[in-house]
Amino acid sequence: MAKTLPICIVILSAVSRSCYGTLLAPEEYGWRPIFVDSEVVIGGPFGDNFVWQFETQENRILAFSIVDGNIKEAQEFLSIHDGGDIYSPNVQFENDDIIQLSRKGLPETLYTTTSKATVRFSTTPISHLKLRIKKAANCSYNIKPETQCGRIVDEVSCYCALFTNLNQVDQTMSCLDNGMKLVSFESEEEEELVHRTWSTQIPFWTSLTDTRRDGSWIWESTMTLLSNGNYTHWFPGRPLSQDSDQLNCMLYGGSTFLSYWGDVNCSALANGICEAQP
Ligand SMILES: *[C@@H]1O[C@H](CO)[C@@H](O)[C@H](O)[C@H]1NC(C)=O
Ligand SMILES: *[C@@H]1O[C@H](CO)[C@@H](O)[C@H](O)[C@H]1NC(C)=O
Ligand SMILES: *[C@@H]1O[C@H](CO)[C@@H](O)[C@H](O)[C@H]1NC(C)=O
Fold it and tell me: Residue 82 pLDDT more than 70?
């Protein structure tokens, strides 16, 4: 069955591609979905029954928002489907638990559960409308009662607290099992947002260790060496420089270190925070 796809304009950040005329069913003519590497914005003109397909990296999902607009209102003109065709179910807002925990003021966003999406315009929007599509990390890991996830920093990354006491290596593995990594604080803002969400009543593991070489602290999740001038937030007097060969992992928060970083024995048991970037 041939689908008609009249004039469309794709704005891929700097590059722009236009297609004119009538496109037939992609499977017949080798028409490929638009690959979302990081972000794509599509603007009009949109006609009746325009169909767009998007896809991203296999283990990532797609996030839809409207530039300077409201996605609920936009749904009057378009339907966004969670999958490779217009018969796939409609995309949804994330579950209430994730939304509750997420940073306030993030753009209203609909997420797929797979790496593909199909957008269909049912009628031409009255005003100029721009649809923003971003690659995002899956944030639906809070399926276990001892896990809590949210869009803590922005609408495309995901952070989860694992309320199970494990040593640092096992906590690293729990994150990896969920396609995530043990948290790395690359900036004060990131630490502050995590702190605000989960407080620091209970300490949790981060990916910072000096197990490879005493005194050389590395964010294992990103394999970056902490050098002079990088953001740090050590508890006064820490890390201990003497007899410190057993205190190789950074524990954040809790009653001992408050909102600071402490160096402790990696075999100690604590909760963990995982993160996933798009
Ligand atoms: C996202 O997570 C959900 C729940 O674990 C899973 O069913 C789905 O397949 C995941 N999607 C991708 C693209 O990994
Ligand atoms: C850490 O410091 C190094 C050397 O000064 C610099 O190249 C790097 O960009 C810094 N990393 C961060 C995350 O600030
Ligand atoms: C670290 O913990 C392990 C396991 O509990 C223990 O064997 C070791 O002695 C500890 N090291 C120090 C310095 O406390």
Answer: yes
